[in-house]
Amino acid sequence: xxLRDFFQRHAARFEKGGPHQKWGxxxxxxxxxxxxxxxxxxxxxxxxxxxxxxxxxxxxxxAAVPATVMGVYNIGLQANSALAVLGQGGIEGWRGLFIQxxxxxxxxxxWDNLIHGAAYFLPVYIxxxxxxxxxxxxxxxxxxxxxxxxxxxxSILFALTLPPTIPLWQVALGISFGxxxxxxxxxxxxxxxxxxxxxxxxxxxxxYPAQISGDAVWTAVDGYTGATPLAMAASPSAMxxxxxxxxxxxxxxxxxxxxxxxxxxxxxxxxxxxxxxxGETSTLAILIGAVFLLYTRIxxxxxxxxxxxxxxxxxxxxxxxxxxxxxxxxxxxHWHFVTGGFAFGMVFMATDPVSASMTNSGKWGYxxxxxxxxxxxxxxxxxxxxxxxxxxxxxNLAAPLIDYVxxxxxxxxxxxxNAS
Length: 420
Known about the structure:
Elements: H1 2-9, H2 24-34, H3 53-63, H4 65-86, H5 93-102, H6 110-143, H7 150-160, H8 168-182, H9 196-207, H10 209-212, H11 229-234, H12 266-271, H13 283-295, H14 301-321, H15 333-338, H16 342-349, H17 360-380, H18 388-419
Helix pairs in contact: 3-7, 3-13, 4-6, 4-13, 5-6, 6-7, 6-8, 7-9, 8-9, 9-18, 13-16, 14-17, 17-18
């Protein structure tokens, strides 16, 4: 109660005309984060809904917690396993000091894996919060509006799409581009037509591809290279049955030549024991978040199912026709689902209520479009085996057109019905 009284006692200072009015947006952001607003509707007739923007964003953030925890554990597991393979006893620098103070480098220890993973995830997330929060506060103060809770979700999703080894200055640059160029210049939350987290990651991918792609960025150990299963399935060596060098996972047992070289089992890929982006590896953890989002009716099941059906449909066609030069064309749908960022994009990115289609029929088409484009990019473009990010951004651009077509079709049907 003392903290609440402190906020209420100094509220007038941050209102219009007060000595600290320019910091009013920051004051209201802290108040809204800690407490429910004290404002109530006036008048005898109004609609009241407990699911406001603040609660929606908190629920999405909570849905991402399983993927975050599993991602942190997997970062440490991959790093500790690689250190054991290389015969190294640890790492140097401030991260090494952090790990030595709280744990060790035993890949069999859950605690050691979590500490090692936290040494890489927490700095990325903190930089994302600080830099992105700075831009949010700056634009809110310039416009004289409240700081929106939408950045709470953007920050966690952006961090989870990055490799653990990414330089922190690139993290700051990427989230700045996502928040400023993909959201604030269009008016802020609710007015952006692109997903800010994906826009920031796409900027980093095309501006600094060496730090966000390739075989050396997914395992947080200097000098160690470990390709993701999706990249290995797309490589020419997959046709020759060459085994991978992942320190974790059993040798795959599959009749498909395109995935025999992956080096991990499907169960390892489903659980998340493989190299990859910090929050995209564990399909199980992502699906736990999906169940929560669907139960709370925050995410659209039409978009998720449409994306899944689009992926399965095109993958089936590629599997039927095959390709002598492209091994990933033979990769089955159940492998596409657990590799790369498909599941993460389906649950957290494609279902963004601002940048996705708004109409129910449009959500089906929007989801199918993403699923088809993601597989098309994966299979047809040999230089870019992961297509989910670009597919969602392209669908964001097409979403207004999809809704326009659906609305016009509904109007025509009503006019015809009334005319008859």
